[in-house]
Structure formats: structure tokens, C-alpha cells
Amino acid sequence: MSVHSLIGHGVALLDVGHLYDRLRALDRTYAPPGVVLASLAAAACYALSAVLQQSAAAEQDPELSLRPGLLFLLLRRRRWLLGIVAGVAGYAFQFVALRRGALALVQPLLVASLVIALPLSAVMEHRRLSRLEWLPGLLIISSLALFLIAARPGRGAPRASDTAWAVLGLLTLIAVAACVLNAGPSGARRALLLGAGAGLLFGVTGAVTEATGHLLNHGIGQVFTHWPPYAVVVVGVGGLLLNQSAFQAGALRWSLPVITILEPLVAIAIGELMFSEHIATGALARVGEILGLIGMVIGIFMLARPQPPATPAGLVQDAPQGA
User: Fold this and answer.
1) Where do the domains of the chain lie?
2) What's this model's pTM, rounded to 2 decimal places?
């Protein structure tokens, strides 16, 4: 082998080593690429799940709302089952992301599911995405980026005290009960409030999921001798029932936006207050965080506004004739 070949191989090895060091450095940042990719994969799966489940749930008898019988009937619908498969895949990606990323990083990234779900829903309804839908989508994505850049969320330790968990459980139960009791019989209000209850439960589910993932660091045997994995099942099923009831009550734009915004807001609060996750606290950072959250909320509720009815192609309203 010539001297030039040896030098060439040496440079290549140095480049690979430099790239490896760069990747490891990125992995130590507040937004590790693997965590971001897993979170976005989860968002895509959740978007597909929401569209499929809502289209199936909307066809069920309104009398079944909030009853376990609704889930049993939906189990017979192939479209809904495909949505469940997509949701399970999304949860798997979310679990992987939470093993290595902060709750305050992973859960906000799931907001992308709303932006993905809207075009999917439009395709299934055989319509074009209107400007009133894609402009808020751009606002949501840009506001999400602003929040993450400003907050620079860092991992904490999901080892909150039993008292803190009990207080969280009580507050969640009260809030969800208030949503259910004030939901009304049907329509946008019911979809919105039941969606709010589902969003609260999904935010708590994310926190309990992170606690379960932390137990895995101490061995698989630790998982089944502690309460978090069982709480994931209970809270997750409750969230699923509320979620399907919200989907059943009306259009996806009435329920999915509030679910999408409440889930990360609850998770961010739990991450900072209970898990001691790092959130930038400088004055400029706080301004960016607040503006990012406000932008996401505005964008999400812009999507929830009633859309004007589409005019069939080729139909032109006649002008009034003069006397």
C-alpha cells in the first residue's frame, strides 16, 4: 500500500471519528437528534391514528358516548383497529423518546401531529386544505420552534414524591370531572370539553410513561413491582374513552386542537414542577417561551373555528336583478 493510500485511509478514519464526536455532542444537547426523530415519528403515527379513529367513532350512536360499550363496538371496525395500531406505534416511539429526552421536549414535539392530521383528514373527506387551515399550521410549527429554542428543555429526574403524585392525581380527577359534567349533550362544546379532558389525561400519561421508563434503568424486575406501569394502563384507557367520545361528538377540528395543546402544557408543568427538568429562566428566554406557547394556542384554536361551507365547483351565485 502506498504512502498516499495510507494517508487517505488515515484522513477518512479521522473524518469518521470527527463525525462520531459531533454526533455524540449533538446527543448531549437539549434536543438529541434521536429523541427529536422518535418524537416526530410518534406525532405522525398519532396523526394517522386520530384521523382513522375519528372517522370511525363519528358513525356511532351518540347514546354510547362515555360508555365502555363504545369501545367494544369500535373494536369491530377495521378502520378504528388500524387507528389503534397506529396509536400503539406512536406510543412506542414516544416511550423511546422519553427514555432519553425531557418531558418538556418530547411532548411539545407531539403538537406536530395536529399539523399532520389536518391534511390527512382533508384527503379522507375528499376536499382541499383551505388557507384557514394551512396558515394556522405554519403558525403552530413556527411557534413550537420558538418555544423549544427559547426553553432549551433539559432532562430531570422522574422521581417525584408520593405526595406530589397524589396531588397531581387529585387535581387531574377534579379537572377531568369538570370537563365531563359541563360537556353538554352534543356538538362543538361537547367535543371541545371531552377533548380537554382527554388532553389532560394524555399529559399525565406522558409523565407516568417517563417514570416507567426510568424504572427500566434499574432492571425489568423493577417495572412490575412499582405502580407507574399500572397507572399508565388506567389513565391511558380513561384518556382513550374520553378521546373517542370527543371524536364521536363532532368534527376533528373541534376536539383534536384542544387535545393537542393541553397534552404538552400539562407535561411541561409536570416536568418543571415535579421532575426538576431544566427550562431556561432568563428574561429573554421566558419571553420566547411565552410567545411560543401563545402562538401555538392561537394557531390551534384558529383551526378549531367553524370553516365556511365550500361552494361546489362551477356553481356561481346569480346576481340580484334590478327592478
Assistant:
1) 31-303
2) 0.76
